[in-house]
């Protein structure tokens, strides 16, 4: 079956530090990959996505590259801000079969950024 | 417009009450979802509607009853819930089942 593994948190950084949150996956076929962010007390927001190997998703200074050879989709940001403090979820979705419509989430990584 | 709205924002109900959660989207999406999220955990899928038909039920107890009256609306009817059902209930939609999902802000449910 499908699975997503994220680096364990929490992650604590100072403002302007470099961020990496690791994400690896197991899936059959060619899944689409996503990063979602959840700010305190809110729902999930789509941060970025990639639908095929070597695609790079980017948004708000965050980037992630779909690496099929390493089955990874690591999230990076060059300079984090206090406002980036949130929970980050890596997720995948397969195109069909019995998984149709289902997102598989990682466990989430809590990020705290201090001034 | 990529907005999914959910009402109410907060709900407190007793174990004998009947209540409903409402979700609405006007993006023309044909797939809609209900998730349950406990604190510090990822969302857990409950139901998927595709073209207004229930396509996935993740073995959810019958005290949760979904309904899709039309392509823009999704309801979750609640009856005889247990305290362990207290959680954030999230609705999401996507153009079809294949694309990214857009989430609403959630309903924070407390069962007393």
Strand-residue proportion of chain B = over 45%
How many separate helices of chain B? 0
Residue runs with pLDDT of under 50 for 5 or more positions of chain A: none
Quaternary structure type: heterodimer
Sheet with most strands of chain A: 6 strands, mixed
Helicity level of chain A, as a percent range? under 10%
Rg of chain A, please?
14 Å
Give an overview of the whole structure.
The complex is a heterodimer of chains A (115) and B (112). Chain A is an all-beta fold and 115 residues long. The model of chain A has no long low-confidence stretch (mean pLDDT 93). Chain A contains no helices and twelve strands. In chain B, 0% of the residues lie in helices and 57% in strands. In chain B, strands 2, 4, 5, 6, 9, 10 and 11 form a seven-stranded mixed sheet that branches. In chain B, a hairpin with a 6-residue loop joins β4 (31-37) and β5 (44-50). Chain B starts with a strand and ends with a strand. The model of chain B has no long low-confidence stretch (mean pLDDT 94). At the A-B interface, β5, β6 and β10 of A face β5, β9 and β10 of B.
What does the secondary structure layout of this molecule look like, with pairings?
The complex is a heterodimer of chains A (115) and B (112).
Chain A: E1 3-6, E2 11-14, E3 19-21, E4 23-26, E5 32-38, E6 44-50, E7 56-59, E8 62-65, E9 75-77, E10 86-93, E11 103-105, E12 109-114
Parallel strand pairs in A: 2-12
Antiparallel strand pairs in A: 1-4, 3-9, 5-6, 5-10, 7-8, 8-9, 10-11, 10-12
Chain B: E1 4-7, E2 10-13, E3 18-25, E4 31-37, E5 44-50, E6 53-57, E7 64-70, E8 73-79, E9 87-94, E10 102-103, E11 107-111
